[in-house]
Amino acid sequence: MAKISLETLRSIDGYVASALVDIDSGMLLAGDGTGVNLELAAAGNTEVVRAKRKVANALNLNDTIEDILISLTKQYHIIRPLESNQKLFLYVVLDRAKSNLAMARHELRTFEKGVDFS
């Protein structure tokens, strides 16, 4: 995989940090931003994605996860498995007071469509 830059995600209102993570290993492939231990977040959120996929399969939902939202009092954490490569996910941290969640989700979809993650 070519080196992926997450810097364009900085334009999202309330942006704090972002990561591109390998679901198989939990390894941080690319990271940007400050205030978050992205290595730890990558490993921990890999477990979240695996658990949600396991439950979705057990429930026979026959659907794919578009994103997983964790709402904290001061932040939003968005976990977005990639449509183009289900072995990867984007993790984005936003300052809740400065962000628009709907716009952020839209901008993540647009970002993914503009980058080759194969």
Structural features:
118 residues, alpha+beta, Beta-Lactamase, five-stranded antiparallel sheet, 2 helices, 29% helix, 28% strand
**Widest sheet: strand order?**
2-1-5-4-3
Mean pLDDT across every amino acid position? 94
Content of β-strand: 25-35%
User: What summary fits the major beta sheet?
Assistant: 5 strands, antiparallel
Determine the N-to-C terminus distance: 6 Å
> Spans of 5+ residues with little confidence (pLDDT < 50)?
none
The string of secondary-structure elements, in order, is EEHEEEH
Instruction: Report the total helices.
Output: 2
Structural Rg: 13 Å
Shape: globular
Instruction: Give the domain tally.
Output: 1
Secondary-structure-based class equals alpha+beta
Brief summary:
The protein has 118 residues and is of the alpha+beta class.
Describe this structure in words.
- There is one protein chain.
- The protein is of the alpha+beta class.
- The chain has a single domain (7-113), classed as Dynein light chain 2a, cytoplasmic (Beta-Lactamase, 2-Layer Sandwich), CATH 3.30.450.30.
- The chain is built from two helices and five strands; from the N terminus they run ββαβββα.
- A five-stranded antiparallel beta sheet has the order 2-1-5-4-3, sandwiched between helices.
- The termini are close together.
- The model has no long low-confidence stretch (mean pLDDT 94).
- It comes from Lysobacter brunescens.
- This is Roadblock/LC7 domain-containing protein.
